[in-house]
Amino acid sequence: MPLDPDMFDPVCPSDLSPIRIGDKWAGMIVRCLEQGPRRFSELRVPLRGITAKALTKSLRTLQRDGLIERTSHLGPVRRVEYELTPLGRSLLQPMTAACAWAREHWEELLDAREASTGGRRG
What are the HTH hxlR-type domain coordinates in residue numbering (predicted)? Predict the structure, then answer.
């Protein structure tokens, strides 16, 4: 099943939450891989704001940390897929809790951000 291009709310920047997995994109990449292996081009669909360079860097970091596995499939059509390792899969429950916490404290987080940026949200 294809990834939903709108699976991430553009109004909810990943850098708003003080609870972060890896870099800016890592948590969203983990969520994209939750239902199974994905190709690079599939990951770019819901991660509209990511550059190819940033996605490559995040994938390499997640792979280095043992959270995802990269598999090259040879054949008439060569392809590469990324999937969560058991270690990466173990992040899903804590991430769900962190997301619930951020939803519960959304207004407080926005107010704090606004106060620190002189009244500008974002």
Answer: 12-110
